[in-house]
């Protein structure tokens, strides 16, 4: 079943969290000269036109990149991400939004390799076209990679990941971002990562996931914590309290296995700002937790991560106030919202990295052609409706929230 189209959701709050973190992971990988392989198991179309039929249908970008577009004093770690989005919109009008392959293309170096998987026949075609244009544009500028820098495969990313590991240079950044249309996706992510870690334990693996009421979603981070990676980091962004109907995506997370040691500080500097700008009500908040392989969450304390943060709500406190935190029940180590008064324009923890180098001339997702919305009963439990239509899917008995 392939009803999901990311074009309906491009640029929403979940994309902002995912792509901001992705940019940070590339920046970290770029610090070493040795090239790396970027593997995108679920690539989507690569570039999205925010004025397309799909994107404007529910205008989800209004929950994400929209409010950030005119922000001026942003935390330093957010800047490379925003610069990247702006660089593809040179007119200053917010028209295009990058998908993860575009982010990777811009952030990775000429010697790095991109391996992109996409199952949807229409999206893989658009992805091919976007990459072709990008390469033509780079060639015009005299930039040529040795060998094939970007390879796109019309195939199953869960299945394919293992065949690329370990990568030739023994360095890899892997993004796993399925639609979670079906609850099987949670298990497939976990299983694929377990196998990947078995083949290549030192890879950096980033997983996006929806934070929903359904059991698979609630248990998901704990399952990832038990994977045999040396370390993990889990960050979530919630923009509002779910309504009683449980419809809509209010919260999502990025779970990183073998994260950069610098990432937590970047997140602590940036997440309060995202909560402040994207938050819609008092339910808006972020969480950051990290731990080691030993015992999942509990290991964080064993590893001497320090005391727990006070319980509270990051939304209520401005990033400038230095207050705000949250501890979720059952999480032994959660140091969320402990900002030390850092806010917009505050001094970065480390120097900001240069903005992306190249620019695609993107087609957007639709190439001007509205596509008939798909619909699927499974969407009722999905984090991301394939049709982008009104969020009217009825709740399943026993699971009344998080549906869209
Ligand atoms: C959330 S979107 C990806 C968005 C993209 N990572 C980004 O950030 O721009 C998920 C994509 O996975 C595709 N997909 C679904 N199942 C897949 C599978 N088993 N293997 C590869 N792609 C799949 C869908 O067609 C969809 O385009």
TrEMBL record:
Annotated segments matching region Disordered: 296-404
EC number, as in UniProt: 2.1.1.266
Keywords of the record: Methyltransferase, RNA-binding, rRNA processing, S-adenosyl-L-methionine, Transferase
Pfam family, one: RsmJ
Keyword NAD: no
Site note Interaction with substrate rRNA, residues: 4
Enzyme class: transferase
Entry-linked InterPro entries: RlmJ, SAM-dependent_MTases_sf
Catalytic activity: adenosine(2030) in 23S rRNA + S-adenosyl-L-methionine = N(6)-methyladenosine(2030) in 23S rRNA + S-adenosyl-L-homocysteine + H(+)
Binding site for S-adenosyl-L-methionine: 19, 42, 100, 118, 156-157, 177
Record carries keyword Cytoplasm: no
Compositional bias annotation for Low complexity: 345-357
Active-site residues, record numbering mapped to chain: 177 (proton acceptor)
Function: Specifically methylates the adenine in position 2030 of 23S rRNA.
Quaternary state and interactors: Monomer.
Family that this chain belongs to: Belongs to the RlmJ family.
The protein's name in its UniProt record: Ribosomal RNA large subunit methyltransferase J
This protein's encoding gene: rlmJ
């Amino acid at each position: 079943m392939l009803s999901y189209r990311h074009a309906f959701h491009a640029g929403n709050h979940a994309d902002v969290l995912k792509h901001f973190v992705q940019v940070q992971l590339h920046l970290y990988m770029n610090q070493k000269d040795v090239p790396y392989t970027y593997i995108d198991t679920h690539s989507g179309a690569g570039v999205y036109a925010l004025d397309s039929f799909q994107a404007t249908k529910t205008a989800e970008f209004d929950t994400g990149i929209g409010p950030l577009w005119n922000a001026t004093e942003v935390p330093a770690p957010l800047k490379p991400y925003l610069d990247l989005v702006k660089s593809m919109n040179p007119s200053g009008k917010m028209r295009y939004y990058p998908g993860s392959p575009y982010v990777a293309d811009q952030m990775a170096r000429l010697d790095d390799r991109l391996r992109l998987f996409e199952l949807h026949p229409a999206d893989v075609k658009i992805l091919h076209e976007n990459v072709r244009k990008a390469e033509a544009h780079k060639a015009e500028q005299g930039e040529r990679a040795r060998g094939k820098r970007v390879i796109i495969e019309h195939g199953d990313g869960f299945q394919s990941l293992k065949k690329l590991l370990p990568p030739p240079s023994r360095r890899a950044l892997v993004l796993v971002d399925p639609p979670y249309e079906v609850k099987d996706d949670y298990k497939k992510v976990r299983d694929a990562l377990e196998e990947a870690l078995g083949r290549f334990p030192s890879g950096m693996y980033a997983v996006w996931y929806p934070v929903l009421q359904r059991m698979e979603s609630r248990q998901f981070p704990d399952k990832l914590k038990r994977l045999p990676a040396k370390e993990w980091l889990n960050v979530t962004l919630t923009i509002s309290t779910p309504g009683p109907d449980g419809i809509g995506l209010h919260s999502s997370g990025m779970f990183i296995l073998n994260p950069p040691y610098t990432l937590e500080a970047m997140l602590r500097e940036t997440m309060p700002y995202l909560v402040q700008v994207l938050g819609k009500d008092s339910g808006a908040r972020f969480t950051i937790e990290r731990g080691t392989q030993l015992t999942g969450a509990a290991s964080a304390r064993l590893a001497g991560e320090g005391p727990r943060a006070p319980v509270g709500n990051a939304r209520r406190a401005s990033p400038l106030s230095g207050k705000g935190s949250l501890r979720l029940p059952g999480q032994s180590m959660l140091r969320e919202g402990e900002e030390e008064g850092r806010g917009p324009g505050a001094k970065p923890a480390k120097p900001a990295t240069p903005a992306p180098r190249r620019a695609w001339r993107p087609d957007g997702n639709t190439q001007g052609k509205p596509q008939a919305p798909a619909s699927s009963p499974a969407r009722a439990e999905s984090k991301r409706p394939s049709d982008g239509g009104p969020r009217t899917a009825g709740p399943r008995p026993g699971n009344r929230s998080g549906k869209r």
